[in-house]
Design brief:
The structure is a homodimer. Chain A is built from 18 helices and 30 strands. Chain A is an alpha+beta fold.
Chain lengths: 782, 782
Amino acid sequence: MLTLGNGYLAARGAAPEASADGVHYPGTYLAGFHNRRPGPDGGEESIVNLPNWLPLTFRPAAGEWYAPGRCRRLHEHRALDLRRGLYLRELLVLDPDQRRTRIRQRRLVSMAAPHVAALETTLIAENWSGRVEIRSGVDGSVRNANTVTEPGTCGRHLTGVTCGMDGTDVVWLTAATTGAHQLVAVTARTTVTGGGPASRRQVGEAEDIGQVLALDLHAGEPVVVAKTAAVFSSRDRAVDEPLVAAVEEVHRAGSFTQLLAEHTAAWRDLWNRFRLDVGERHAWQLPVRVHTFHLLQTLSPYAGDLDAGVPARGLHGEGYHGHIFWDELFVYPYLNLRFPELTRALLEYRHRRLTAARRQAASEGGSGALFPWQSGTSGRDESPSRSINPVNGEWVVDYTGRQPHANLAIAYSAWRYWETTGDLSFLAASGLELLVGTARFWAAAATYDPADDRYDIRGVTGPDEYHDGYPGRPGQGLDNCAYVNLMVAWALGRAAEAYAIVSRHPGAVGWRTIIVDDEERRRWAHIARRLRLAFVADGIPAQFEGYGELAELDWDRYRRRYGDLRLLGSLLQAEGDDPNRYRISKQADVLMLLYLFSAEELTALVRQLGYPFDPARIPDIVDYYLCRTTHGSTLSRIAHAWVLARTDRRRSWEMLLAALGTDLADPAHSSTREGIHLGATAGTLDILQRCYTGLEVRGDVLRLNPLLPDSLDHLDCVIRYRNRLIELRIDHHHVRLATPPGADPPVTVLIRDRPVELAAGTTVTVGLGLPFTEGSHPEAGE
Amino acid sequence: MLTLGNGYLAARGAAPEASADGVHYPGTYLAGFHNRRPGPDGGEESIVNLPNWLPLTFRPAAGEWYAPGRCRRLHEHRALDLRRGLYLRELLVLDPDQRRTRIRQRRLVSMAAPHVAALETTLIAENWSGRVEIRSGVDGSVRNANTVTEPGTCGRHLTGVTCGMDGTDVVWLTAATTGAHQLVAVTARTTVTGGGPASRRQVGEAEDIGQVLALDLHAGEPVVVAKTAAVFSSRDRAVDEPLVAAVEEVHRAGSFTQLLAEHTAAWRDLWNRFRLDVGERHAWQLPVRVHTFHLLQTLSPYAGDLDAGVPARGLHGEGYHGHIFWDELFVYPYLNLRFPELTRALLEYRHRRLTAARRQAASEGGSGALFPWQSGTSGRDESPSRSINPVNGEWVVDYTGRQPHANLAIAYSAWRYWETTGDLSFLAASGLELLVGTARFWAAAATYDPADDRYDIRGVTGPDEYHDGYPGRPGQGLDNCAYVNLMVAWALGRAAEAYAIVSRHPGAVGWRTIIVDDEERRRWAHIARRLRLAFVADGIPAQFEGYGELAELDWDRYRRRYGDLRLLGSLLQAEGDDPNRYRISKQADVLMLLYLFSAEELTALVRQLGYPFDPARIPDIVDYYLCRTTHGSTLSRIAHAWVLARTDRRRSWEMLLAALGTDLADPAHSSTREGIHLGATAGTLDILQRCYTGLEVRGDVLRLNPLLPDSLDHLDCVIRYRNRLIELRIDHHHVRLATPPGADPPVTVLIRDRPVELAAGTTVTVGLGLPFTEGSHPEAGE
């Protein structure tokens, strides 16, 4: 699969012909166009497949329109130029009349002009001369057809298509989305260089529009057809009439060469900001670049003003209907040190949906704010009630939407953004509301058991989607999930802390002051000290109460039977069994805690609840859960790569490589066709950026504690930290920090707890001393 | 005229009957809905008059629907409760059958729930009992009809109206705007308390929908009809289907009492933040509150996320088609110290239209960015080519749209926001681009005259709209306008300074680095030192080159003939004369400079250009222009009240009072029917807040230099300054500063150049010593 995007617009597919895997799936998606979940009644919207601007084909006079299957392909080569964000294709075709025609294409979705995309096609008649017709247009008859959807769901999300020509070389098409009636306008301009003066005529059906250009090819003489498209919608700001804007934009756009130059310059600036190098000749440099490229196609700087959120599959496909889950948890830590403005804008996306989240909480009889597990534009719950079992193709009841912990991920993200950036205006305006809304939800959800002076949180599910209830009670939730209860304990503390911070800066608050009275704060503090945790063994928290009493799976038997167990849950279901019966995990759940918190933080958190906790047992916790986890979610490997980084560097690196390969090495299995896995995409970069470098901002101090995997010689990157630009180069023995000249005062960086003063315009190199011994733990120190 | 608004939505008019001035003008406007300028071809949009949610009337059985004219009004009382944002009305009507019915209404546009408005009507049959029908609905057949528009212009801006009932007590109506096809949905829910069980039936035509409720009135027993409306549009964020959202919202909304409680609480928070008191018993406390109320109806905290700009007439009417001019210049200084987040958001509105401004500059053969004089949603030039002469009703060519100085106002605003708040992230991300775009436009517009080593800026117009060319050459512009050239000299300097600041914080920049090379900066610096200024006399800059050679108007003759000369330009035109011939000014032009710059700044600026300038001559400059100015713009008095504050406190106070009366004392003459004058509204508050207090932030220092007019005993207000909340109480002898407890370090405030340290949680009172002598100037110091 190939996608080109700019954070506003993404175009995938390979028209005019089917892609290499034989499936024809064009698709153009706009950020923020993931509205209501399609239902069995059809007709509603998911992520909307917009009118396709790509169609362009040709036919020699008296021949047939070129299409795969009709001509023989003598040669084909496709390449993606990551540096320039350019898709390149070369094709040599032989038609039934033995005419050999070479086709070269270059395609871009402009990173400089976010509404513009362009396709340049060079035609060379190799062994013939004669008339050729080129057909170029916009197709409004598209449907969403790249995912399996519920029976009866209609993949058609556009209505009221109207189209025409503007009397020049431009065709236009407008349509409205079926549910939200958002207007979309697509224009395409086709120009020709070479081949003599071209004649044009309009062609098209009711829902597609095109021009046919007739011109003369001379053997060996290239003719260049440039097609420029512009896309606007009624969601766009600073636009009144999308069609007027799209017509104006496509006329104003420069030549393909000019567009490419501006586009390349924009990508150059982006690459400068998102540099993350492990060495040009390192085998994994390319996947790192691909992930960076994928990430920036959805979360480019343009995404900040769009109110589009962090969709699980990026802008790359229709998987999960474009919905927003909790992937931001894996994305923001990376962005916080690269493009914190974007994190803030994306957290504002959540803040704008706080009213919806409050209603969700209220509708479930709760307080505060409950962000749904899956949501779209409106912020309401869009989690499906059924999903397909990929093993046997049966539709089964889907309880995953009952996960109530998305608000914890958001509260966590809001706090970490504040902690990393010190952005008080965010904390005072939006962050505090997100934190307090989450705290109130969980404080109300916790029930007090006076017998033990303990609070219980019952009937919820954690991230591990294999467990949605106790055996025989599917969908009814579990009690005292370690992930949930520890996150709640932490989040209650951060809400109170944020409240205290904001209260100390009375002028930082906009207008409506949130009041958290003493009684409420006392209750929060009490819950945060007395939530119940269960343990499966001494020092090993149970994923939930009763996890330790579940049956052990006969892993060997299942491995022998199925090989890959990533779909273990579906396999068990297909056998008529129930995953709820077993001590198995689809993905990191307890171990997510070690991903989100440093060992010091986690130790303090468990002890705060009045339970003993020895951080030296962390490797045992890791072992206990890791061997029971199937990584049915791509996010799981991120968490595990992180968790293992200090205890088992080799396995950590292997986990990272597997995660880097998610959408590259095994795209078929990973359903990459339905879109990339954005959380895993960013998470891999973050492992390199924060985990292997030991980079942390805590208590207003930037800390580094590098420990590279053996397979990495060095790591080069650039971070933005509180108005400073800091270049890091880390190898097994040294850390080099460099900052350009500037006015910011020196910053103190703790490198393995040694303070290093870094003044603007200087370079500091620090020796790391002896590397950690394999298997040692960060607490062991240097 | 009455308007209730919340920054998102504003509802005006007094349905079901005509207003006190006999004109029926309902109108509901949404922020950001000022699209394309209506043209003679009609059908396009200006500010859109949305479906009217107010219609509610009644009839006794066998009677006629109540409407003014059909019944006798025995009593009527209307009141606006500013504190609660509540419109109150009491009416006693006598119908032809001698039935006396008392009607009490309370109306609000919620400041707590921005999509919600509500109208509560209490009916009391005083001397009768019997059946009554109440008709309540939504009217989609509205037109814009509150302004004079070009002949042929169509006031109808809605199309495709569909409406219905949802089977309960809710009616709904949707429509699309004619040009931009934005969808609007309005729902209204009508409930009754008392009168026994009500029956309901649907009524309505194609474009309006209502319910008729039949119930029984008993003499003396009140029946309360509560109507709640919800408005959503396809511009709204976090909304997919406006109609779905509007139906949900109106069902969820609480009772009128609950809505009022939340609304009042929100207004209380706003009033706390926008407190500006001159004493409860002071005659001008009320107008100050009215202006604050008016301002916050358009620029409430909700306005920040709407991409709606600062429209000249607020959300209060259709004047100027809802367009954006330069009023923000008078609004931001006030907001910067109250709600700086809003200034930033509104400057982002401009930044989002930088591409349009660049295109505007290019289309006129220039460089950089040229913000049009009038613009709407798209940012393109919407200035009318013709306007009506209010004196004789003739349509005349309108050259005012050729004013190119809006970008200077924006650059000024961006810099002052930065200077006041120290918000580096704004400066780096958007501010610098606005400043550089403006600098580039003017650097390219300035032509070099090697003979004098001077730059000229020719063929432009300043703020004074009486002068758009030299006599006989209307519309061709003027040369070397003092306002323009001095603003340009200043703006070039600030652009270079901003560039230097941002360059010193390399990590503050997002991704695309603006490059201003040495050569460009040298050119800017050269122009900023060598722009030409003309003078009418020693030390008195000419409004433009040649101003001193124009004819003097026989002011006495015109005053005798016309009395009020605010429409002098139109009067002269109606006489067949040309304002361009005379030394007259419609509004502050040269004197705007004294509004925008302190005497120190202006002195430095003129001297920087190599001209002598004695600040002691400032009173002469003021005298020269003041006596030639007619204040044909409401903004003029703001500038003059400011300019006179130190030299002639009495006249300054009179100017301020006149400005405070703009939309109150003389609404007919001031065209308040077409909307309030937002710039003057905020400007009056700013005179009190900054001018009479001498409040200034310069070089990261907060300064106070109070000089109250004799008519003011004291001034109380609260400002937000860099996360601090500072309460100021100023009288003729003392300044009292108080801050609540907090964590911010003490701030040094210069009070008449004496440093005072203000720590959190303390109150400091400083004696002012002898007051300034009347007529002294700030330079004189203490």
